[in-house]
Records
---
Amino acid sequence: MASGPFIFPDKAKLNMFEGATALLKTGSANYRLALVSSAWTPANSTDEVWADVSANEIAGVNGYTTGGGTLASVVLNQTSGTVKFTSAAFVWTASGGSIAAWRRGVVYYLGTLNGKVNPLVGHFLGDSTPADIPATTDTNTLTVTPNASGILSAT
């Protein structure tokens, strides 16, 4: 006789992500959002840490900082069986010139977790076409807002 699917209780789902050595631990100011150029082709089966991606980061000048910006208001919660990891929008202001054009945003944890240095959380296209997001010209702001379903959502 075949068994039915394994069911994860809602609170168990949240507990799998939260914890001292979990990738999505909240209450931490260690999550970064970095911007990379179209030169990076994601290798989702092998990319694991920021070092796998960082060579393709846009230049850290004119308001953009190398390594990306620190995400604020990081939240991990569970509602109706869906675990959601998200943060506040991040804003860069171009100063002294333009922030370079970029293709993907990469979220990673700054630090060591489970023996991995700066493990990746994930990445997203800035434009679903896909196309580069144009340079942000001097004095203008570049705002990256997480999707309504969060940076990561698991049901």
---
Amino acid sequence: MKKRRGCIFRIKTWEIFEAMVLALLIKSPDHGYSLMERISEFGINSHVLEQGVIYRILRNLEQRGLINSRWETEGSGAAKRIYSVSEEGKVYLRNFVGMEREKVKKLNGIFSRIDTILRKENEN
């Protein structure tokens, strides 16, 4: 099978998960395990994600300077690494959402045109 080139829209699942994590951290700083549970706020079943995925996302976002972390040692139990969004992370998320929204708008236009063609075909 020939490899396809020239993908117009390039919407990557990994980037969508990064955006969801950033949005959750803007709402309130948190630790990885809790973020796994909170991902359901977006209608995503947290059981679909492997636990390691959220930590890879967090590590990647931190390496890129989009989030910061600190160790929380107060309270009972083991220390927890708490993540929060940096100013760079907020700017990145705004830009990302804007670009992805434009892609979705173009896709909706394409689907609308296809629906029109299908309706006309059904009328014949």
